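In the design runs reported in the main text, the only information available to the sequence generator was the tokenized backbone. The following block is the verbatim input for one such run; it is reproduced so that readers can re-run the procedure and compare outputs position by position.
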């Protein structure tokens, strides 16, 4: 490892469609600093946010650092621990998490042979869990897990929750986590995914193609809504909440999707209105949510996977060299669970 200077990585030097992604064979290996570890990546999860950052439509271009290695989710082995990093991890340990350098303003994502992560934000992978399954967890699993927490959906409360887009990455985790907490779960999906979601634990599956959400549930509102789409869907979700309910939403990207660049203003206005409404106790509480790096949460989640209580739903796996195809597929927003890239050193 000491002599390794370059690696294979999926890089974009400008913003645009999937054609800007390059399969680079001599990209510098990132150097971990104090508090970080270097991970040899075995698999990397692909998320809508990866396509959003690359596309330049959902994040201000001024804050997007270029060139950049794509990707945030990883699973692999600890390759190096620099002096000064306090951790009980050892070289060779199987770990997973969110790469430190995945954000728009960073540069070292997970679609590479090596990535760096803050040691406290990584979690060990139990032997029963594959690298592929582990790589499918981080952003989606953390977002679902933390959304239930901020919405006040405690275990044993028996509350009713509506989860949008149940067959997606966040949705498949949220449905399972909610059922483990003893909640009554209603989710939205196409008819083709209805039986699949009931197998995961959904009590009711709402067909968004044929039925109006508000008409169905306005007289029997939910205690909480977990919204993974945002945009126009966000306001529909508010209409089926109890007055003292809670709305947890991954909402900012949805406004750009539905309203174009003008969605920035719509998003700002919506955010302010919803926060003021909640503060004044004139309506449901509002909680913007996005998966926050947490070694503890990742340990709890992967433990449930190892015990067989939660399934990681993998839509498909592709080799690292097909990262552009993975971006294209995930960007369409119709995945059933997660897409994962396998990373093999060449």
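Verbatim output:
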């Amino acid at each position: 490892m000491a002599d390794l200077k370059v690696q294979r990585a999926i890089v974009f030097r400008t913003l645009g469609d999937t054609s800007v992604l390059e399969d680079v064979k001599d990209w510098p290996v990132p150097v971990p600093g104090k508090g970080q570890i270097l991970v040899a990546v075995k698999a990397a999860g692909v998320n809508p946010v990866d396509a959003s950052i690359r596309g330049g439509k959902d994040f201000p271009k001024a804050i997007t650092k270029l060139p950049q290695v794509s990707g945030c989710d990883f699973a692999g082995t600890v390759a190096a621990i620099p002096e000064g990093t306090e951790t009980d991890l050892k070289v060779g340990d199987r770990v997973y998490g969110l790469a430190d350098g995945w954000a728009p303003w960073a540069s070292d994502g997970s679609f590479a042979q090596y990535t760096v992560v803050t040691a406290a934000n990584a979690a060990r992978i139990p032997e029963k869990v594959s690298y592929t399954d582990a790589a499918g967890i981080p952003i989606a699993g953390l977002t679902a897990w933390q959304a239930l927490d901020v919405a006040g959906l405690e275990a044993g409360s028996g509350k009713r929750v509506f989860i949008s887009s149940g067959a997606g990455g966040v949705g498949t985790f949220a449905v399972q986590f909610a059922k483990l907490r003893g909640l009554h779960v209603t989710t939205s999906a196409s008819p083709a995914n209805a039986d699949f979601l009931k197998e995961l634990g959904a009590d009711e599956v709402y067909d968004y193609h044929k039925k109006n959400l508000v008409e169905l549930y306005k007289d029997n509102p939910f205690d909480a809504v977990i919204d993974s789409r945002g945009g126009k869907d966000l306001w529909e979700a508010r209409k089926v909440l109890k007055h003292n309910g809670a709305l947890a939403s991954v909402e900012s990207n949805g406004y750009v999707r539905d309203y174009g660049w003008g969605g920035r203003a719509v998003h700002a206005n919506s955010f302010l209105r919803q926060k003021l409404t909640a503060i004044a106790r004139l309506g449901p509480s509002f909680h913007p949510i996005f998966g926050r790096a947490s070694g503890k949460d990742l340990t709890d989640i992967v433990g449930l996977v190892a015990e067989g209580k939660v399934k990681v739903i993998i839509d498909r796996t592709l080799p690292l060299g097909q990262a552009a195809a993975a971006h294209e597929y995930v960007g369409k927003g119709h995945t059933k669970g997660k897409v994962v890239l396998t990373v093999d050193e060449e």
